[in-house]
Amino acid sequence: MREDGRTVEVLRRRFRNGDSASPLRHSARAALLRSACEDPDAEWIDDVLIVISELVQNVSQHTRGDGELVVTVAPGTVLVEVGDTSTSIPRARRPDANHAGGRGLLLIEAISQEWGVRSCRNGKAVWAELCAITTPTGSSMT
After folding, report:
1. Per residue of the chain (142 residues), what is the pLDDT tens digit?
2. For the sheet containing 77-84, what is the strand order?
């Protein structure tokens, strides 16, 4: 667990390319429920889980390597980061009526306060910051 007094890493999980996002969402929900300071059924948790699903699925669809999910909470925000070994930078695309996919980053853009990509030593991390009602102190890593 990474803690700086106001920011707490509540979840860090590696996953294999092609793995379902479902176990990661389950772990994230449990960690976020522990960090919630008010309504444990808050809509913001569902928004975080949508972002996790989209980012994890992007690793499977657009890279060949495995990934890592990191969820960090701070007062009023949740940061979701999904790292992978690819250096290819994802970009939101205009939806194509002839294709079912290609809307994930647009969805993340609509749900989050902001999102972006940062280069890492072994690839990149796509991140999204969302509004949340959390209490970072006392949270624990799952």
Report:
1. 345 568 899 999 999 999 999 999 999 999 998 887 665 557 889 999 999 999 999 999 889 999 999 999 998 899 999 999 999 888 777 776 666 666 788 899 999 999 999 999 899 999 999 998 765 544 444 4
2. 8-15, 67-74, 77-84, 123-131, 114-120
User: Strand runs (DSSP E) across the chain, as ranges?
Assistant: 8-15, 67-74, 77-84, 114-120, 123-131
Q: How many angstroms separate the CA atoms of 30 and 139, rounded?
A: 11
For domain 8-131, give the fold.
Answer: Heat Shock Protein 90 (3.30.565)
Q: Is the pTM of this model over 0.90?
A: no
Return the domain boundaries, the chain: 8-131
